[in-house]
């Protein structure tokens, strides 16, 4: 019957959810945050470096008030 696919469906759902849970925990252990910024191209890498330079922590949102006046 139709309910015979429930175990197979459950295995597939769990197998697809495991990488997300593992990356969530691994980023907390390695990076110190649950979110790791994607740096797929040069522009995103430069934005990461800019946020590190301005705020010290690239994962904390800072506004224009944190840019020093020169």
Describe it for me?
It is built from 2 helices and no strands. With 70 residues, it is an all-alpha fold. The chain folds into 2 domains: 1-36; 38-70, no CATH class. The longest helix is centred in the first third of the chain and has 25 residues, at 6-30.
List the defining traits of the structure above:
70 residues, mainly alpha, 2 domains, 56% helix, transmembrane helix
Average pLDDT for all residues: 81
The assigned structural class equals mainly alpha
- Helical amount: 55-70%
Number of strands: 0
The profile of the biggest β sheet is: none
What global shape is seen? Answer: rod-shaped
Give the radius of gyration: 20 Å
Q: Please give the domain count.
A: 2
Would you spell out the secondary-structure blueprint of this structure?
Elements: H1 6-30, H2 42-55
Transmembrane segments: 6-27
Pfam families: MWFE (PF15879)
Protein name: NADH dehydrogenase [ubiquinone] 1 alpha subcomplex subunit 1
Short description:
The protein is an all-alpha fold and 70 residues long.
